[in-house]
Amino acid sequence: MGTRVDGLTDMFGPEGPSLRELAVQALSSVEHGYDLLAPKFDHTPFRTPGRVLDAVARALAPLGPFDDGLDLCCGTGAGVRVLAGLCRRSAVGVDFSAGMLDVARRRVRPEDGPAIGWVRGDARALPFTAAFDLVVSFGAFGHFLPRELPGLFAQVHSALRPGGSFAFPLGAPTPANHRAFWTLLGFDAVMRVRNALWRPPFVMYYRTFRLGTVLAELERAGFTTELRALPEFGRRDDGSPRARLVVATKSAPEQGG
């Protein structure tokens, strides 16, 4: 959804990671890198901004009620808080970083509401079958290469009950005349060079998750998709939304008659 201006301030403040810590993370595997970053992750621009979380919660509320929800690649648990406000029975976070899950367990406390659960696992091999009515994900797709999307979406499809939904926010492409376009392009180029020279790879790309490809792969996995504008983020000069919520629904079995 883009980089927060306020997050950049936090990132290099006393509570955020140092440049040295970021460099060590970037030269680690994805899993170990996030284990290292976990204690300071919420003080970086990489955490999904609260206004995005709130906008998604408002957009999903009319689609409920939901019984059980899963946050895919939950990190420190911000998305699980969203699920806790939408689901009646359980809200579960799955992530392959033990460090991120440790932070999530401390920061997201069960209160009056659904049961909260945490599972260490790989999103490409989910240990669930027809267990959820809603799966969400926030800002995690840069960690998956385009060739991994079919398998990832198949896993989510399997984890959902018939009629369940997979939802995630997606920002509009940054125009080429915007500085952020070149910043993201440069970041991806640096990561490609890093991964060509250093092992293990650190998969984190900002410009590989393209809407047309994503919709096609979701439909191929068995979902029916729709796009819902997130009005809180306004519209671009051409009138299109700056941010959308992708809602992919697993078909319910037809009733015999």
TrEMBL record:
GO MF, one annotated term: methyltransferase activity
Keywords on record: Methyltransferase, Transferase
Boundaries of every Methyltransferase domain copy: 70-164
CDD domains xrefs: AdoMet_MTases
The keyword Transport is annotated on this UniProt entry: no
GO biological process, one term: methylation
InterPro entries the record matches: Methyltransf_25, Methyltransf_Superfamily, SAM-dependent_MTases_sf
The keyword Oxidoreductase belongs to this UniProt entry's keyword annotation: no
Record-given protein name: SAM-dependent methyltransferase
Source taxonomy: Bacteria, Bacillati, Actinomycetota, Actinomycetes, Kitasatosporales
